[in-house]
Amino acid sequence: MLLAAPPRLGRSRLVLVDGPSGAGKTFYAGRLAEDLSGSGRSVATVHTDDLLDGWDDQFTYWSRLERQVLAPIRHGAPGGYHPYDWHLRRFGTEWVTVWPADVVLVEGVGCGRAEGRAWASLTVYVYAPAAVRRARSIVRDGPAMQPALREWRRREAIHFAADATALQADLRIDGSA
Q: What is the pTM of this model?
């Protein structure tokens, strides 16, 4: 499906892997990157958590992603960014270069939004039941983070409903397995 789709981000095929927190987006994107690399394709992966400017930047990171990563790649140049340091609560000094590749994978909450779909060769929505996502969150993030993540989940539900992300996705994957 993906490789049959034309490149729409310059010479790269952009894959947007979206879905709610704890659904399995990162795992799915990692497996897809491994499979594509194993078949001889070059792959660049961007995690939107690295582009967020803290907890309140849940959906407003898009212009940063577009300006720093997608626009340069669309023109055949490398993009990049300074990843956010969640412990220091600021962007770090390290520069992560994102090279134009056969496939550019972007994964994270909100990346499959309407603004990106025109450039995407494939949009994927990964879902899982709320109880599974909450249990994963407790293991991954710890109990102390749950109040912040409850608000995060509330906002992502509003976003997904308004954007119709799941309905607009090319592929829907059950990430609960």
A: 0.95
